[in-house]
Amino acid sequence: QQQVKQSPQSLIVQKGGISIINCAYENTAFDYFPWYQQFPGKGPALLIAIRPDVSEKKEGRFTISFNKSAKQFSLHIMDSQPGDSATYFCAARGAGANNLFFGTGTRLTVIP
Amino acid sequence: KAGVTQTPRYLIKTRGQQVTLSCSPISGHRSVSWYQQTPGQGLQFLFEYFSETQRNKGNFPGRFSGRQFSNSRSEMNVSTLELGDSALYLCASSRGQGDGYTFGSGTRLTVV
Hints:
The structure holds 2 protein chains of 2 kinds.
Chain A: E1 4-7, E2 10-14, E3 19-25, E4 30-38, E5 45-50, E6 56-59, E7 62-67, E8 72-77, E9 86-94, E10 100-102, E11 106-111
Parallel strand pairs in A: 2-11
Antiparallel strand pairs in A: 1-3, 3-8, 4-5, 4-9, 6-7, 7-8, 9-10, 9-11
Chain B: E1 5-7, E2 10-13, E3 19-24, E4 31-38, E5 42-50, E6 53-57, E7 64-68, E8 74-78, E9 87-94, E10 102-103, E11 107-111
Parallel strand pairs in B: 2-11
Antiparallel strand pairs in B: 1-3, 3-8, 4-5, 4-9, 5-6, 7-8, 9-10, 9-11
């Protein structure tokens, strides 16, 4: 059973537009929600992460919105650039654990 | 600062053989986790080692094993390889529980 559900599977956005990727979870014991970016031939790289006591976190053009009651969180990429074209994964981790449960990934393509 | 180093980058093995993959974590990082990445199953947690002890294990058969040395370097071994073991194997290191991961670029294993 997929612990973290991610959508959409793929996304095409115009340069300068906003990319939005959504994730949902069921396990209320999760207490850490990171987003990773992966380019072909590379391992995932941590982009931004949030804990459930905060509803929003922003770092540069990347923002996580977190809705604890709905058990959903999303990544917004503002002013999307062709260099943002990559696969994005959301993930979740339980309190007291170090292993991550990953979503299935979203392949983002930003067209010039 | 050197990142997480995984060797080799690519491997081709025959069904029934065994394979050993190596991971050198970032200096000062004592936790090493291993993940399997496939197009069908996505990123799945294999196991985590901390101070030479396996601290957590995912839902993989006993053919998958690992160990960690006193210098925090880690190896994972897969015995009796099956075609379905073809995947990108990723190693991630962190200072300890609760810290964010840094992933290596992975070892691409192909079983023929």
